[in-house]
Amino acid sequence: MSQAYQIVVCGSIVPDPLQTLEPITGPVGPALKNEAMLPSVLDPWAGHALFEAANLAKNHPGSKVYLVSLAPKAKLQQVMMTLAQKVPFELVALDGSASGFTDSAETAALLADAISAIPGLDKNRLLLFGGWESASRCSGSTLAMVGEKLGITDQFQGVDEIAVQPDGSFQVLERIEGGRHQTSVCAGAPAVLGWATGNLPEPKNNPQVGMMNMRAVMPALQKAKPVKAGAEGLAFAKVALPNQVRETRIVKDATPDAIAQEIIEWIKK
């Protein structure tokens, strides 16, 4: 008998990676220059998690996907206009800062409270998905803390694949050091899975899915609970772009082996 899951995906929005991001010190702490004007997209790591969740739900009738997002309501609405056409989901929105300078523990507490408040949530069927890391926070800690606050101790990070077995258990393919994978078996839900890139391409836009999603997305945004997620109490000594180093030499008639050896020596320095 097929197992029906409640799959909760944690995912926020980040500035479009094609934009130039310049850190500055604002009135309340570190920020990005002209952050309010930067176009936003769904965090790519969370995007992989959402597409994998939708695929799992499609293959297990009765399953449902929730997207829980902490972000400024106006910017989240812009991203939803595109994202809603990709896969079916129900949005749970929190209206607050999506800055990369917010504290992971504070963010995790807000997300865990929002997930616990989902009507009809059954933790015995709960799979908590999200990005292994984040394109903004990049700490790799928020999802793990959300799981701990929800009492979920079976956690897998760097996941590329999940395969549900006939007995309800599932096999998880995790990335480990040295470019290898580790295969684990979990008895069943609840579990936390922090996704790497997975195996699925980005779904094509489907206007019908978009219309179905937007009927629920707009009311969800309108009743989004305002929350305070910032970096209050944290002190940053300095925020700056990494230094750019460029050393160029023009050399004629160098062999590939000589070029490779020179690169090796430069890296060793």
Global outline? globular
Name the CATH class. Answer: Alpha Beta
CATH topology assignment = Rossmann fold
- Evaluate the radius of gyration: 21 Å
Question: Could you state the CATH homologous superfamily?
Answer: HUPs
What percent of residues are in strands? 25-35%
Decide which structural class fits the backbone: alpha/beta
Count, helices? 6
| Mean pLDDT rating | 85
Number of strands: 13
Describe it for me?
- With 269 residues, the chain is of the alpha/beta class.
- It has one domain (6-226): HUPs (Rossmann fold), CATH 3.40.50.620.
- Helices cover 29% and strands 26% of the residues.
- It is built from six helices and 13 strands.
- The protein has helices at residues 44-59, 73-83, 104-116, 142-149, 207-222, 256-268, and strands spanning 6-10, 13-15, 23-26, 29-32, 40-42, 64-71, 90-95, 126-131, 155-164, 170-176, 180-186, 191-195, 225-226.
- A nine-stranded mixed β-sheet has the order 11-10-9-12-8-1-6-7-13, with helices on both faces. The chain has a two-stranded antiparallel sheet with strand order 2-5. It has a two-stranded antiparallel sheet with strand order 3-4.
- Helix 2 (73-83) links the parallel strand 6 (64-71) and strand 7 (90-95).
- Helix 2 packs antiparallel against helix 5 (207-222) and helix 3 crosses helix 4 (142-149).
- The chain is globular, with a radius of gyration of 21 Å.
- The relative contact order is 0.18.
